Amino acid sequence: MIKRKKKAGLFLASVLFTLALAACPCFCRAASQADEEETPEELAQLYARSAVLMDADSGRVLFEKDGNTARPIASTTKIMTCILALEEGKPDLVCSVSEKAASQPEVRLDVREGETYLLEDLLYSLMLESHNDSAVVIAENTAGSVEAFAGLMNKKAEEIGCQDTYFITPNGLDASDEGGTHSATAEDLARILRYCIMESPKREAFLTVTRTDSYSFTDLSGQRSFSLQNHNAFLSMMEGALTGKTGFTTDAGYCYVGALENGGRTFIVALLACGWPNNKGYKWEDTKKLMQYGINHYQYETITLDPSLPSLPVSGGAPPSGSLGSDALALLSSEPFQKELLMAGEEAVTAQVKLPAELDAPVEEGQEVGEILYRIGEFEVGRQKVEAAISVPERDLLWCLDQIIVRFFAGKNKISQ
Questions:
Q1: Residues 352-364: what's their mean pLDDT?
Q2: Has 134 been annotated as catalytic?
Q3: What is the pLDDT of residues 265-315, one digit of tens each?
Q4: Which of 58, 125, 130, 334 is catalytic?
Q5: Is 78 a catalytic residue?
Q6: What pTM was estimated for this model as a whole?
Q7: Residues sharing a CB contact under 8 Å with residue 258, sequence separation 6 or more, in sequence order
Q8: Which residue segments constitute the domains of the chain, with CATH numbers given?
Q9: Judging by beta carbons within 10 Å of its beta carbon (0-12, 13-18, 19+), is residue 374 exposed, middle or buried?
Q10: What is the pLDDT of residues 231-268, one digit of tens each?
Q11: In the chain, fewer beta carbons within 10 Å around the N or the C end?
Q12: Active site residue 75
């Protein structure tokens, strides 16, 4: 235990302890810092201008190349359109086609003004064939207008922690307005897909749509029939491929976001500006390279840590010994930290204990007095409360009188002996 001397006049000043947990056999390695690491050799030749490999379970970025630069994201936008439509609408919602929807450019289902479709059918059109007109029909019938739907998209992006994302259209066509350019970072795009497959109440429905190989339907009049094929080639490239969405526009270049499950681990890759014609295959090379890197280097480890804690001086506290010349100290406790974490061989967990310089009496047993933050690099993987292990009463008049009485009778006993 580390004892700290009481400092007069200093109340609740933050004191930070970073505990390098080298004594633990699992963590005899130095903690890695992402910004100090060199690019792994196998990822040094990525085509994408921006790339991210993310752990879908925790949301931790395992690798990034310019992952926080906002860029146009083309039809990868449609993962947000799909999940919002699933959450806000119902599969049997009847959707009518407006003039605006019918006038959208290629790639298109070729809907016609006045036709009606079921929302569920349009979602397959959106995600399997990436139809731009279907995206507008979905937006208008789910939220009332494209502008209102874009507002929902931006609100959802903010809710799930996106730092630099701005939606204007539901289909991802290049666009700008007074608020900015339709864009996102590779990290934000990965975070959106993580929400779609890990957190959304409609995650199973999202996976069902995006993993379907082919789909057929008609408009509600029954006069027109459509057959769709899934164009996400990654689904057949690697074992465990879960879902994904391609994209291309003149400004964005080729883009991709996808997920893969392997041995209980789920990885997400997001790529932006990954080549232009004639380099359509670059995105598949980068995706496979990043996924394989995650599979080769990251495994789950069960981490158990129990950092030692100092005692804290208690201002105005009654010392347990009863001696007025001694310090009143609060003993501290916390539960051991245990968690299963996806980690690479060179990584370590650090603990940061955040405590005040001293406490004010009285202190109650179990009172929360601080917290411990656990991190891999700069990414927080957990936190715990620090509590007082014992009560420390206030050194008030009653306490002083009680000590006088105790000493008085103790003195009389010595005399009588």
A1: 91
A2: no
A3: 999 999 999 999 999 999 999 999 999 999 999 999 999 999 989 888 988
A4: 130
A5: yes
A6: 0.85
A7: 193, 232, 234, 241, 242, 243, 244, 245, 268, 269, 287
A8: 14-29+303-416 (2.60.410.10), 48-278 (3.40.710.10)
A9: buried
A10: 999 999 999 999 999 999 999 999 999 999 999 999 99
A11: C
A12: yes
